[in-house]
Write a structure and sequence with these properties.
heterodimer, A: alpha/beta, Rossmann fold, 6-stranded mixed beta sheet, 4-stranded antiparallel beta sheet, 12 strands, B: alpha/beta, 10-stranded mixed beta sheet, 19 strands, globular
């Protein structure tokens, strides 16, 4: 099993509980969508799974390929194949994108028992993936995400995912703020990564990304719990009815 | 030790100094200077300029001037050599080391030599390096230096002379419980141009007391880089007195990495209209390091520009200080000055004092200043970690980026930027003192 979330309770340190018993099981090869109204706990779930500081797990368990994910530090999780595409990618002035990417890739490869890529191999891999997401090579000479448009930042997340080839990718609102062209590029990037060895969890408020990346399973998160699960048709149903049936007036 | 007991060994050293042939005026000034030093004693923390600097490492034991240097080899200076240098002067334990120096070919009108040689051959030049002010001013370390200095470096360019390759000066000190009293003189005639990088390095618990007198003539351009990479037990005090003529350009970058106690003072005066200075630097501190940057910029002429930007990083129990004053005199209209100090605290026991200050007596000026102290950006750190980069490496990348941002201020000189960047990376490779 790629990911097993069992009765997960979590809060933002010292404040009220946001996740109130999340259960979720994701198998290798599957794409899951987690949908839900604002404030349902979607981003908290992404944060807890990726090891973002500031969250406190008060009960429950998360297993990643049978291992206790919550016991691992964020960088360990990433090296073991967990990837988070950020809802708001962080700008890091002074840290060159290319340098950053190479450091990340070499850290991940080392964990997989692979040697560092030489400059030639690295550049070749970079160029192939850049093309897929239509990102200009010049962007990589800047600081990480510095001077990127909103859409470029989101595409850069998927580009990094394509480079790092994670086992489990968690995409936090990757579709938000994208125009239709960027949405299609991002979808293309995600679809290219689908495979029997990999699981993808897409967290989204809207159904539109799911027209381009068709999920195997759809879950509705509301009030800190998964309240309904179904096939891809559940997303279409939500598009019709909204989240009102799940406790959100919006 | 009582104040008297602390300064007495230096007064004794002055009396016992080896007789070197020197001009009478110099002997007189030295006598005046040692008197002034005896009157002043060590600075105390009651004096504003020394309020934050803990001088105790210097006060624990006397550091009489070193006599006779230990022989050094090429290998000893290899880590600090600068690839962009066309002229090199090396001083070992405060004395010119001809076997390691390579002054190379100089254009007509350029003088580059040790202070000792200049004293013999061009005493007229040295007269500008030791002034009456040393014997009446309020700087005890400058006065002590005037009394005791034996060597240093002199660069003098006649009008219009441009040096294309950089000059590199390496100071290597390795004699414990001794001091190198260095007097450097840099005089750029009108419309001349030079780039200078001075590096201070060594092994053991010694004291370097360096004073530089710098004059940049009308329309002349000087880029002055200092790499302070003294040993972890050493004390470094460096005082730069800079005067800029009309339309002169002076850029100073100080990268401060070493020393148990290290302080760089820059006292700069605009003497002519339309001149500009850029004072930049990065200080990295860990362990029990104590590092101070102190600047005083005196806008005594109209239409001059100051750009000042210093950054510091402190880990472990280290203590960083930035104390900077920009003064604008009544006649200095159209002054354009800004000053910024940005600091990063890496541990809860580290401390940073930042005190930027403006004193403006003219009414038509553009001046600003600011200071920030913060932690490593947690969001940036998590972003790097979330990609698999180990925490220690992620921290290094962010600290390196923090320093790199000010190194970028050195324009049009990628070789110099890369050189300083490498030394930052080398420092960080030994841990950041979290």
């Amino acid at each position: 099993m790629m990911l097993e979330v069992k009765n997960l309770h979590a809060r933002i340190s010292e404040s009220r509980e946001i996740l109130k018993g999340v259960d979720l099981t994701v198998k290798a090869g599957e794409v899951h969508a987690i949908m839900g109204p604002n404030g349902s706990g979607k981003s908290t779930l992404a944060g807890v799974l990726s090891g973002k500081p500031g969250y406190e797990v008060t009960a429950g368990q998360v297993l990643f390929q049978g291992r206790d994910l919550l016991a691992m530090a964020a960088d360990e999780r990433a090296r073991d194949g967990v990837f988070l595409a950020f809802q708001y990618p962080v700008e890091i002035p002074g840290v060159n994108n290319m340098y950053f990417l190479r450091a990340a890739l070499n850290a991940v490869r080392k964990q997989r028992g692979e040697s560092d890529m030489d400059a030639g191999q690295f550049l070749k891999a970079v160029r192939t993936k850049l093309k897929l997401l239509e990102i200009g090579e010049d962007l990589l000479q800047r600081g990480v995400n510095v001077g990127f448009s909103g859409g470029e930042k989101k595409r850069n997340e998927i580009f990094q995912m394509a480079m790092l080839e994670p086992k489990l990718a968690i995409l936090d609102e990757t579709d938000s703020g994208l125009d239709i062209d960027a949405l299609q590029m991002v979808a293309r990037g995600i679809n290219a990564l689908r495979g029997p060895e990999r699981a993808i969890v897409m967290i989204t408020h809207y159904q539109r990304l799911l027209n381009h990346v068709v999920p195997d399973r759809v879950h509705v998160l509301s009030g800190g719990k998964v309240v309904k699960s179904g096939g891809k048709e559940l997303a279409l149903e939500l598009e019709q009815t909204g989240y009102s049936a799940y406790g959100d007036a919006a | 030790m009582s104040v008297l007991a602390e300064i007495q060994p230096y007064v004794e050293a002055f009396k016992a100094r080896p007789a070197a042939p020197e001009p009478t005026w110099l002997t007189h000034r030295r006598e005046g200077a040692i008197r002034r030093f005896s009157e002043l004693g060590w600075p105390t923390r009651k004096q504003e300029a020394w309020r934050f600097t803990d001088l105790r490492p210097l006060q624990r034991a006397p550091f009489p001037p070193v006599a006779g240097s230990v022989r050094a080899t090429e290998a000893d200076i290899a880590s600090w050599r600068y690839s962009g240098a066309a002229h090199r002067i090396v001083l070992v334990d405060g004395a010119f080391a001809p076997q390691l120096s390579a002054i190379g070919e100089l254009p007509k009108g350029a003088w580059l030599a040790s202070m000792a040689q200049t004293l013999r051959d061009r005493p007229d030049l040295v007269e500008q390096a030791v002034r009456e002010t040393d014997t009446i001013g309020g700087q005890p370390f400058v006065a002590l230096n005037a009394a005791l200095f034996a060597d240093g470096v002199v660069l003098a360019l006649e009008p219009g002379v441009a040096l294309d390759g950089a000059i590199e000066i390496i100071h290597l000190d390795r004699t414990a419980e001794r001091s190198s009293q260095l007097r450097n003189l840099i005089l750029l005639g009108p419309n001349s141009r030079a780039t200078l990088i001075e590096t201070y390095a060594g092994e053991g618990a010694y004291w370097t007391n360096a004073v530089a007198v710098i004059g940049v003539g009308a329309g002349a351009v000087l880029r002055h880089v200092k790499l302070q990479d003294e040993s972890a037990a050493a004390i470094h005090l460096g005082h730069n007195r800079v005067e800029l003529g009309r339309d002169a350009r002076y850029e100073n970058f100080t990268l401060s990495l070493g020393g148990r106690l290290a302080r760089t003072d820059i006292h700069l005066k605009f003497d002519g209209e339309g001149a500009a200075c850029g004072l930049f630097g990065a200080t990295l501190l860990r362990g029990e390091q104590e590092g101070t940057i102190a600047t005083v910029v005196d806008h005594a002429a109209p239409r001059c520009t100051t750009r000042e930007y210093f950054k510091s990083v402190a880990g472990d129990r280290a203590h960083g200080v930035f104390i900077g004053t920009i003064g604008v005199r009544p006649q200095a209209q159209k002054t354009d000055a800004n000053q910024l100090s940005k600091n990063l605290l890496l541990s809860r026991r580290a401390a940073i004092d930042a005190k930027p200050e403006l004193e403006i007596l003219a009414d038509d000026v553009k001046c600003s200043h600011g200071a920030t102290v913060g932690d490593l950006d947690e969001a940036a750190l998590f972003y790097l970690e979330s990609r698999g980069i180990p925490v220690a490496e992620a921290r290094r990348m962010l600290i390196e980026a923090f320093a790199a941002e000010v190194i970028e201020r050195i324009e049009d000189d990628a070789t110099m930027r890369a050189h300083l960047g490498r030394h930052v990376a080398r420092w960080l490779a030994a841990g950041d003192g979290r």
